[in-house]
Design a protein that fits this description.
This protein is of the alpha/beta class. It is built from eight helices and 14 strands. Strands 2-1-3-4-11-10-9-6-7 form a nine-stranded mixed sheet, with helices on both faces. It is elongated, with a radius of gyration of 19 Å.
């Protein structure tokens, strides 16, 4: 079960929809005792929200970090990444690049680099981690300005984007975030199903570039896929993909 430090009520419905979509059990917590008195808690989620300002919410979340960090895995979204960084002696600062800011309550999107793969994430934040804690590993950064987008610390994962939002549904890093949660709720390895992982890589690549046909060469170069990866996608997912040749005679995957 995920213990959820709730965001503002106006954003709560997005998180609930996310949990229900993936059938993640969750419990909204209001005090630190809500965690202490529940033995089923397997992860703690620090949600997004307004900037950190020593509010009652901040005090509660710092106290939860103090009591449970490295005892129960934490996941943090946007503001949750920032408060976890501060707790671990990192620093945050105001971000100046408009790529990361929302416009009229609509997320902006920008490119990030993850594992040498270029993909997109949504963004709705005004602050960034300007000094990454020493014990944190940077997994993904924004392409234009190297803002940390995914940070790992042992069993804890923190993301600067908003995977709970439906506008991330077809993007690769939402899939990775979801599978990280599955790892600790259901004791499943993140990459148990490599075929499913590669399907999401192809779908993400096509969605980002507005492609319906993508060459084997592009998948190998831009998505770090092998011949075996591509072969398995075609073999086990005939309802989604088929092999064709483009006008140049190159082997391609076509979305059905």
């Amino acid at each position: 079960m995920i213990a959820v430090c709730p965001p503002a009520s106006s954003n709560l419905s997005e998180y609930i929809s996310f949990f229900e979509m993936y059938k993640f059990p969750y419990k909204l917590i209001k005090t630190i005792d809500d965690i202490k008195n529940n033995n089923d808690i397997s992860m703690i989620l620090l949600c997004g929200g307004s900037n950190i300002s020593n509010s009652k919410r901040d005090i509660l979340e710092f106290s939860i970090l103090e009591k449970y960090y490295n005892k129960i895995p934490f996941i943090g979204i946007c503001r949750g990444l920032q408060i976890a960084a501060l707790y671990n002696n990192g620093e945050i600062s105001k971000i100046n690049n408009d790529d990361h800011k929302e416009l009229y309550n609509i997320s902006s999107f920008h490119k990030v680099i993850f594992n040498n793969i270029e993909t997109f994430v949504n963004s709705r934040h005004q602050m960034m981690v300007s000094k990454v804690p020493k014990n944190f590993e940077i997994i993904a950064v924004s392409q234009n300005d190297n803002v940390p987008e995914i940070l790992l610390d042992n069993k804890n994962i923190f993301v600067q984007f908003h995977p709970e939002r439906s506008d991330m549904n077809r993007l690769l890093l939402k899939y990775l975030f979801v599978n990280y949660i599955k790892k600790y709720i259901y004791n499943k390895d993140i990459f148990t199903n490599m075929n499913e992982y590669n399907i999401n890589k192809v779908l993400s690549y096509c969605y980002i570039n507005d492609y319906k046909i993508v060459s084997f060469k592009s998948l190998k170069k831009n998505m770090c896929m092998s011949d075996n990866d591509i072969s398995n996608i075609l073999k086990y997912n005939a309802n989604h993909f088929k092999k064709i040749k483009n006008k140049k005679g190159n082997d391609c995957i076509s979305l059905i």
